[in-house]
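Case study.
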Amino acid sequence: MTALPNSVTDTLLERFGDRFSQALALRQQHGQGESYHAAALPDAVVFAETTEEVSVIVRLCAAHQVPVIAFGAGTSLEGHLSAVRGGISIDLSRMEKVLRVSAEDLDCTVEAGVTREQLNTWLRDHGLFFPIDPGANATLGGMASTRASGTNAVRYGTMRENVLSLKVVLPSGQIIQTGGRARKSSAGYDLTRLFVGAEGTLGIITEVTLRLHGIPETTAAALCSFPTIDRAIDTAIAVIQLGIPVARMEFMDRGLIAAVNRYAGLSLKVEDTLAFEFHGSPAYTREQIDQVAALAADNGGQDFDWATSPEERNRLWKARHNAFYAVVSQRPNARGWSSDVCVPVSALGECILFTRELLVDCPVPAAILGHVGDGNYHVVFAIDPDNPDELAKVAAINKKMVEKALQLGGTSTGEHGIGTGKIDYLRQEHGDAVDLMQVIKQAIDPLDIMNPGKILPA
Amino acid sequence: MTALPNSVTDTLLERFGDRFSQALALRQQHGQGESYHAAALPDAVVFAETTEEVSVIVRLCAAHQVPVIAFGAGTSLEGHLSAVRGGISIDLSRMEKVLRVSAEDLDCTVEAGVTREQLNTWLRDHGLFFPIDPGANATLGGMASTRASGTNAVRYGTMRENVLSLKVVLPSGQIIQTGGRARKSSAGYDLTRLFVGAEGTLGIITEVTLRLHGIPETTAAALCSFPTIDRAIDTAIAVIQLGIPVARMEFMDRGLIAAVNRYAGLSLKVEDTLAFEFHGSPAYTREQIDQVAALAADNGGQDFDWATSPEERNRLWKARHNAFYAVVSQRPNARGWSSDVCVPVSALGECILFTRELLVDCPVPAAILGHVGDGNYHVVFAIDPDNPDELAKVAAINKKMVEKALQLGGTSTGEHGIGTGKIDYLRQEHGDAVDLMQVIKQAIDPLDIMNPGKILPA
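After joint prediction, the assembly is written out as follows.
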């Protein structure tokens, strides 16, 4: 049943008791997450509760060359969790303590298993929030590991900009602290940014120190529909170019709006749509809204409706957050395949129109949506994972979209990560720089036990 | 006269002609820059004009294990340029082409030898600017290499946040492109951030792709003097905590104001002072000014004078930019020693007051100034580099200040870099994480030819 050496199994069982498991259902859940990629099961799951426990497990695995894969909330989309060479899935979801919040310094330290919703609930009484919002209620450790971003990144940046410091268990089991609490530093190599986005292939993040922001005095949201997709995108580009600091600027194509209406019982106008959020003082929020409304009107935008009440805003953003599930629910027993690319904003219109053309021949329900202020968008496909013919067609569409994005100077993934799903594009995107990534991987993890088979092509 | 193998000298001479030099004066200039650290002379200087030329030189040096040190404008402050093991100084100042500006995408690509003033002159007609402003007219390659920041970082971030992509010559001579032009990406290890701040110890940056910003509709500046240093700092902390997006917020202690008055013929009030700059629409700038003025008044701030005319603003910021020279000019034939630390903003008052106490016993003219919105400040000492007793006393003060900053959760350098000057603090600051930095250095530069003796303790 397992490829684990008995000595590993015995040691873990003795040390972790019922926090060590080889139950099939648990291994299945830990080998897939929300990814459309086929599951590959770890040999066992261990629920770690401290950094020291993670270190003990990693040390043991290193001694026996057993792979280790960190597991947070299981919301990854590109096969990051699949145990392609078996090994131990270290579940960090019980490491869920908020260790420290400093309202004065606008920062906090949390254990890696704290989710962003948990954190924001905790922060509310301090008048603070953590802006990075990838939609799913991911853990902060997982978000750091995939360099996540989401709807608020256009204003507040991504995990790259909002992680100050990390506690990391290295492949040897050694525990280090990267970076520090100062807002900036020129002291040595930027190890923090090396682990942010490394998808657990260089070490396991167990604590995250984050930048926080004050809850804005005023928050307003607005929806605007456009006669054509390119006029919606032109509006988004103009907003960025004028430097209007929108907090969110999301594109939803008409197909998605229809799906969202059905899924959430809404009656949004079925048109290509931009959804905005504005943060600031009352006067400044009003100024931003007026500027954006004028730009939208110039591009034929209609029904620029804005909402300041929390209820209306929540309804709107709930619809956006449920987009993935809304698309998937269009088809019984479907699974979601969400791909993402990101291009320089000037190329966004061309890339999205190209993608929409591709979707004309798509055999499954699909919709385009995205964080267009960053040049980042997604296509969500509702697939039948047991239909290889259909999967091949979707894969071909995805490939064409990714290659178009790369041609336009973009990236194969704006925020979902490489995992196993985008591994074939890494060299196309980064050329010989991939050799350097491999040098770094080999130096830090010479036994290749840290989430093997991810990011780097063989 | 030289430790270079004849074959290296001959090959370089043949290939580069009079762009290869072993003249003493040139070697002296290239072995020190503006640093107070004693010069250590390279064996030769080569003026490179293309990335390929840099690659040729590095390949040759690798074959003969000759050190290579990149040289830009020579404005580094912590001994980065000192050729502690001899070798070749590659002068990149002739690589000064702006290769591409995209007003649509708010980005540009420049050769490493372009200075920030050159770039901003070029950008003005596009309505754009590059905000990172360390004071000195450094090159963009040098600024990336030391992870520079400066006065605007409180609003716009540092080089860490504003470099999108780099062209780098690796220690093997191989040329790679890191990152890409998309605003964000989750595709692979963040090599860009690895080279930003690596001080030329992992490779030589030859091209830099940068984020740009639109020139703000309105720019206003203000000065405000305070009865005590801690009330000035309290005001700065309150501004940050309220999230007021000041573009600059600089502290100058009363000693510095006196020096600046003498140096620049100004008549600023000799008090502990904050200088602000505000960017935005007219209404929003006004709103920020009113908020900051109210906070300053709460802390006993007086004479909150604001200036919107470019002449007045330029005069003010010129005074700030000349602070280093103003302090040094207080003493004939002195050299400047500018140290910097950065702490969480809540600890800033304590750290600055501690530093002021230390300066009571300082044997040379000294002043405190800094980018207090980031928790970063400098002490500038006017030293006689030939007086070892005096140098020892200044070094002792510097040591106490750095150790205090580290105790308070800060960093030994906010923006000047480690070079040779802060090398003894790296392990104190980063602990075992330094081992990992050494693993990375060893893997990427196994012959240790890239700016050896910098950043990493032996």
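Observations recorded in class. The mean pLDDT of chain B is 95. Residues 325-427 of chain B form a domain with the Alpha-Beta Plaits fold (CATH 3.30.70.2740). We will return to this complex in the next lecture.
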